[in-house]
Design a protein that fits this description.
By secondary structure, the chain is α+β, with helices and mostly antiparallel strands. It has helices at residues 37-50, 73-85, and strands at 8-13, 20-22, 32-35, 57-59, 69-71. The protein has two domains: 1-35, no CATH class; 36-86, no CATH class. The model has no long low-confidence stretch (mean pLDDT 79).
């Protein structure tokens, strides 16, 4: 069943009906995007497998000792969010 289900589904409710209907155009102003849970988890795990903390580690300039740095969590979260939006 899941193999035939789309990864994303766009639904809307028109003013003449109490029922939701599928919208073919995701840019429709009334459309709400629904994402299959298993597809979301799979996509998030794939990003975590292909990225590491080292990708977002930034050295602190003028530190008193070699290798002092910090994790740029903001950039990491932004990249993760962009990946999920694709």
């Amino acid at each position: 069943m899941k193999a035939n289900a789309p990864e994303k589904l766009y639904l809307s409710k028109n003013i003449y009906s109490t029922y939701l209907y599928q919208v073919p155009d995701p840019d429709d102003d009334t459309a709400v995007e629904y994402f299959r849970t298993d597809a979301f988890i799979e996509k998030a795990c794939e990003w975590l497998r292909t990225h590491s903390e080292d990708d977002y580690f930034e050295l602190i300039p003028d530190a008193n000792y070699c290798g002092a740095g910090t994790l740029n969590k903001k950039r990491m979260v932004e990249d993760f969010e962009e990946y999920l939006k694709k």
